[in-house]
């Protein structure tokens, strides 16, 4: 691939992957049952957060473009809580790329993620700016899936997510 291509556009088969890479999940992938089979035997699931960002639901679902999937965007003073998965396998990232619709729906970024153990670099999937729409809302099903990772979230953040306005198909 051309050296001028941004790093988030490179596929998992290219040399961006190195052993022991971390992944930060802030959507449905916070749920450990969703990530089963994508992690190395030594992988850990750790409550984590990214400072200076907020969660939004601006990535359109292909089956209903009025439903929004989770994304993060810069927001001074904001914090996005989620889960840090350590030591995700190369095959695990290949599956994540497929699931996240990389690169058409989500791109990849490397960001600083914080845990009680300190700061870590992690791969984070972020909405493709060419398709995001700021008026979207998540479906009840999607938000329920996202809250499958509630055990890793502070109660105040969980409550915030539980009160996100939902998409209603008929109004």
Describe this protein with a few key phrases:
single chain, 18% helix, two-stranded antiparallel sheet, alpha+beta, disordered N terminus, Hypothetical upf0131 protein ytfp, 171 residues, 5 strands
Notes on the protein architecture:
The protein has 171 residues and is α+β, with helices and mostly antiparallel strands. The chain has one domain: Gamma-glutamyl cyclotransferase-like (Hypothetical upf0131 protein ytfp, Roll). It contains four helices and five strands. It has helices at residues 32-35, 90-100, 140-146, 155-162; strands at 21-25, 45-61, 64-88, 106-115, 118-127. The radius of gyration is 16 Å and the shape is globular. Mean pLDDT is 89; it is low at 1-13.
Going by CATH, the homologous superfamily would be Gamma-glutamyl cyclotransferase-like
Q: What gyration radius follows from the Cα positions, in whole Å? A: 16 Å
- CATH architecture identity: Roll
Biggest β-sheet description: 3 strands, antiparallel
- Our estimate of the beta-strand percent is 35-45%
Which bin fits the share of residues in helices? Answer: 10-25%
Tally of alpha and pi helices? 4
The count of domains is 1
Using the coordinates above, name the CATH class.
Answer: Alpha Beta
Order of strands in the sheet with most strands = 1-3-2
Ends distance:
45 Å
Please state the average pLDDT score: 89
Low-confidence stretches: 1-13
Secondary-structure element string: EHEEHEEHH
Based on CA inertia axes, which overall geometry fits? Answer: globular
Number-wise, the strands total 5
The CATH topology is: Hypothetical upf0131 protein ytfp
Structural class: alpha+beta
């Amino acid at each position: 691939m051309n050296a001028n291509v941004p790093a988030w556009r490179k596929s998992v088969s290219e040399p961006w992957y190195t052993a022991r890479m971390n992944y930060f999940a802030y959507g449905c992938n916070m749920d450990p049952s969703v990530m089963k089979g994508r992690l190395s035997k030594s992988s850990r699931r750790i409550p984590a957060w990214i400072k200076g960002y907020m969660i939004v639901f601006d990535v359109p679902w292909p089956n209903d473009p009025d439903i929004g999937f989770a994304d993060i965007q810069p927001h001074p003073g904001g914090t996005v809580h989620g889960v840090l998965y350590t030591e995700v396998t190369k095959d695990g990232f290949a599956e994540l790329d497929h699931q996240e619709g990389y690169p058409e729906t989500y791109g990849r970024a490397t960001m600083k993620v914080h845990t009680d153990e300190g700061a870590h670099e992690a791969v984070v999937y972020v909405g493709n700016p060419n398709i995001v729409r700021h008026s979207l809302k998540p479906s009840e099903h999607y938000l329920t899936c996202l809250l499958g990772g509630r055990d890793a979230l502070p109660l105040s953040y969980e409550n915030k997510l539980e009160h996100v306005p939902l998409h209603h198909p008929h109004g």
